[in-house]
Amino acid sequence: MFARAVIAAVSLLPGLFASAANAADYGTYGEPRPAYASARPTGACTDPGVLRFITSRFEYKAANYIRQNLSIYEIRGMQLIGFEPFNQYISSVQREYCLADATLTDGSHRPLFYLIERPWGFAGVGRSIEFCIPGLDPWYVYGARCASLQPSY
């Protein structure tokens, strides 16, 4: 019985000394940061699924809302222009603001602003994608020059 108590006490000593060492060197051995606090992700702006959604949805909107025979021929130069990470105190939604250059079937090049929000899909599952091309939003659904799809900072 005494031997078990001694073995238990000895097995706790390394943990005791390790925590004291970490406390002394707090700046060097701090706790790991959560995954959402890491460097800004860039993959969502170039995600083929996001770009496919935008091109197919634009074709539908052009035909049914702005009554023009337009499609997106090519999307290039995708870049992340703003990022709002998930934060349990401020927002439970992660937002990625993206900008790209869209070539339309009429030969024009226009900026394409799009916003990817997670988890914001149907019933809070998945993602939501909103997009806007300035000049092709006649009712200013996203504000002048698609302002609501651009970061405010």
Helix content: 25-40%
Report how far apart the termini are.
66 Å
What proportion of the residues form beta strands (DSSP E)? 25-35%
Q: Radius of gyration over alpha carbons?
A: 25 Å
What is the structural class? alpha+beta
Low-confidence stretches: 1-41
Instruction: Describe the global form.
Output: globular
The side-by-side strand order for the widest beta sheet comes to: 1-2-3-4
What is the tally of beta strands? 4
Query: What is the H-and-E element order?
Result: HHEEEE
Largest sheet: 4 strands, antiparallel
Q: Report the total helices.
A: 2
Query: Residue-averaged pLDDT, rounded?
Result: 78
Describe this protein's structure.
This protein has helices at 2-24, 48-64, and strands at residues 72-84, 94-104, 109-118, 128-132. The protein is an alpha+beta fold. Strands 1-2-3-4 form a 4-stranded antiparallel sheet, with helices on one face. Strand 2 and strand 3 form a beta hairpin. The radius of gyration is 25 Å and the shape is globular. The chain starts with a helix and ends in a 21-residue tail after the last strand. Residues 1-41 have low confidence and may be disordered.
Features:
153 residues, alpha+beta, 4 strands
List the helices and strands and how they pair.
Blueprint (H helix, E strand, L loop, with lengths): L1 H23 L23 H17 L7 E13 L9 E11 L4 E10 L9 E5 L21
Antiparallel strand pairs: 1-2, 2-3, 3-4
Keywords: Signal
